[in-house]
């Protein structure tokens, strides 16, 4: 089609189910116009005249004006002559992506003012979508296409339910409509301008309606909180809970860019961000994993001096093994000294030689095999075949008493000390064989069955459990020691180390 009535150079700029839109130039005025040509035999020609009447009734800068109506004599096609928008539609503006919040408020405010003017005349658009929002300037828009408009006197049962499902209000699917339906469509357009995606999308009408019942997707966090609340109010599923009028929406949109933006990020008003303890489920502040009650250990340990925290590059797992080895060596050395210390002090031993002897102590044992070797008694030195003769001391009463005391010290300790030595020496005879730690555990258990108050043997049993990897049994032995001796620093330190390894 090249000519229609007084308009020439027709160019197709859009098409729909029942009409096509052309751009044509007036032959005499030399001005571009938009011609909406309806398809031949389209339903109810009277309805097309109503559209022209509704759109011409509303005289507002935000409504596309209808200038003329005519009929093609050859094809008997009805067409409307309207203003031509040289800058395209809002759908074309949204193709690159989202719009700035200030521009969204400016454009949405113009749409709200235009809807308010139509509602004041008793006209409801009912088909508001980005394709029907036209740009007459880079920041000037008008609403067009009143093909599905209704009035307050129109009965909804006269015609079937038609429209674009993604922008129809929930009540329109049930055949009901009103001013709140246009506000719903305005909310979907604002949401799409802020996110760059359709608010409600689906493969079928049922999918779109299910998405409406689930609620709109969340807005980006940088959106102004007042704008986010307004979109939430416009997209209320119940029409009674939406804003009262389009004028109220326009006033809110016009006030947002002028007032300072509130501090903080945008959080949806209906969403509460909560954090719960991973152990007991109580609500705790954000950024924490457990509540203070669950974060404290179950056993109240005595106050001890803890070492400084490790450097960032050395983790607790890497330091646990050397600490455990040192603690194991110290504890075993202390236990062995307790087993083999006689009744008197070394200073009371009789001096057999006046020569000074320097003894270099070996390094403390650090591995289980070294601990077992250190626990064995040193072999007796062989006596020379021809010892040097010594002068016999005169038998006096003091010498006899010293000899008797020395003989008494050379004899073994009482029975419980002998059983302690046996508890260590019995499994140490097989030091070079596998399973020596388990034999030592069995020996210590038998010893503790006879002497449950022997805390040194119980501490060594806890260390053997740690060597076998049974941390729970070791923890039980250390807790037993702390119940009998709360100020035992070694047991408390080992128990604290086990707790850190467990975390």
Structure overview:
The two termini are about 80 Å apart. β1 (about 5) and β2 (about 5-15) form a beta hairpin. The longest helix is centred in the middle third of the chain and has 25 residues, at about 315-340. The model is unreliable at about 260-275, about 295-305, about 345-360, about 365-385 and about 405-435 (pLDDT under 50). The chain has 16 helices and ten strands. The strands form three sheets. It has a six-stranded antiparallel beta sheet with strand order 1-2-3-4-6-5, covered by helices on one side. It has helices spanning about 45-55, 90-95, 100-120, 180-195, 205-215, 225-235, 245-255, 290-295, 315-340, 370-375, 395-410, 415-430, 435-450, 455-470, 470-485, 490-500, and strands at about 5, 5-15, 20-25, 30-40, 65-70, 80, 125, 135, 140-145, 150. The chain has about 500 residues and is an alpha+beta fold. It has three domains: about 1-85, 2-Layer Sandwich (Phosphorylase Kinase, domain 1), CATH 3.30.200; about 85-260, Transferase(Phosphotransferase) domain 1 (Transferase(Phosphotransferase), domain 1); about 315-335 and about 415-503, Tetratricopeptide repeat domain (Serine Threonine Protein Phosphatase 5, Tetratricopeptide repeat), CATH 1.25.40.
SSE blueprint and pairings:
Blueprint (H helix, E strand, L loop, with lengths): L2 E2 L2 E9 L3 E8 L5 E7 L6 H13 L8 E6 L6 E5 L7 H5 L6 H20 L2 E2 L8 E5 L2 E4 L6 E2 L27 H17 L9 H10 L10 H10 L11 H10 L36 H4 L20 H25 L27 H8 L21 H14 L4 H14 L7 H15 L4 H14 L2 H14 L4 H14 L1
Antiparallel strand pairs: 1-2, 2-3, 3-4, 4-6, 5-6, 7-10, 8-9
Helix pairs in contact: 3-4, 3-7, 4-6, 9-14, 9-16, 12-13, 13-14, 14-15, 15-16
């Amino acid at each position: 089609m090249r000519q229609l009535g007084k308009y020439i150079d027709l160019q197709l700029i859009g098409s729909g189910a029942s009409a096509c839109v052309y751009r044509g130039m007036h032959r005499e005025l030399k001005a571009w116009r938009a011609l909406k040509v309806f398809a031949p035999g389209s339903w109810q020609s009277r309805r097309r005249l109503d559209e022209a009447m509704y759109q011409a009734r509303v005289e507002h800068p935000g409504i596309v004006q209808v200038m003329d109506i005519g009929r093609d004599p050859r094809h008997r096609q009805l067409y409307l002559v309207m203003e031509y928008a040289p800058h395209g539609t809002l759908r074309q503006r949204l193709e690159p992506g989202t719009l700035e919040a200030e521009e969204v408020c400016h454009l949405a405010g113009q749409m709200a003012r235009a809807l308010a003017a139509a509602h004041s005349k008793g006209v409801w658009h009912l088909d508001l979508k980005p394709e029907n929002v036209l740009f007459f300037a880079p920041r000037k828009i008008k609403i067009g296409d009143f093909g599905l408009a209704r009035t307050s006197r129109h009965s909804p049962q006269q015609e079937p339910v038609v429209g674009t499902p993604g922008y129809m209000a929930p009540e329109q699917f049930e055949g009901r409509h009103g001013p709140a339906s246009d506000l719903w469509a305005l909310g979907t357009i604002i949401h799409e301008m802020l996110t760059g995606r359709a608010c409600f999308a689906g493969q079928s009408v049922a999918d779109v309606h299910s998405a409406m019942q689930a609620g709109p997707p969340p807005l980006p966090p940088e959106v102004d909180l007042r704008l986010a609340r307004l979109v939430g109010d416009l997209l209320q599923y119940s029409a009674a809970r939406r804003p009262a009028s389009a004028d109220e929406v326009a006033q809110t949109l016009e006030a947002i860019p002028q007032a300072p933006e509130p501090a903080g990020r945008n959080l949806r008003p209906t969403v509460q961000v909560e954090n719960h303890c991973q152990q007991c489920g109580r609500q705790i502040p954000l950024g924490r994993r457990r509540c203070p009650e669950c974060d404290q250990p179950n056993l109240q340990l005595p106050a001890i001096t803890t070492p400084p925290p490790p450097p960032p590059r050395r983790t607790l797992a890497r330091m646990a093994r050397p600490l455990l080895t040192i603690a194991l060596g110290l504890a075993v050395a202390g236990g062995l000294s307790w087993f083999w210390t006689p009744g008197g002090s070394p200073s009371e031993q009789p001096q057999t030689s006046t020569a000074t002897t320097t003894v270099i102590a070996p390094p403390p044992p650090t591995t289980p095999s070294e601990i077992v070797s250190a626990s064995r008694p040193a072999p007796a030195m062989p006596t020379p075949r021809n010892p040097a003769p010594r002068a016999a001391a005169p038998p006096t009463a003091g010498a006899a008493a010293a000899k008797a005391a020395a003989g008494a010290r050379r004899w073994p300790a009482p029975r419980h000390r002998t059983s302690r030595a046996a508890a260590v020496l019995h499994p140490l005879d097989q030091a070079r064989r596998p399973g020596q730690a388990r034999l030592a555990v069995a020996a210590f258990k038998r010893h503790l069955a006879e002497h449950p108050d022997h805390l040194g043997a119980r501490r060594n049993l806890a260390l053997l459990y740690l060597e076998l990897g049974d941390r729970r049994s070791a923890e039980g032995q250390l807790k037993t020691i702390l119940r009998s001796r709360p100020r035992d620093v070694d047991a408390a330190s080992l128990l604290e180390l086990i707790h850190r390894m467990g975390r």
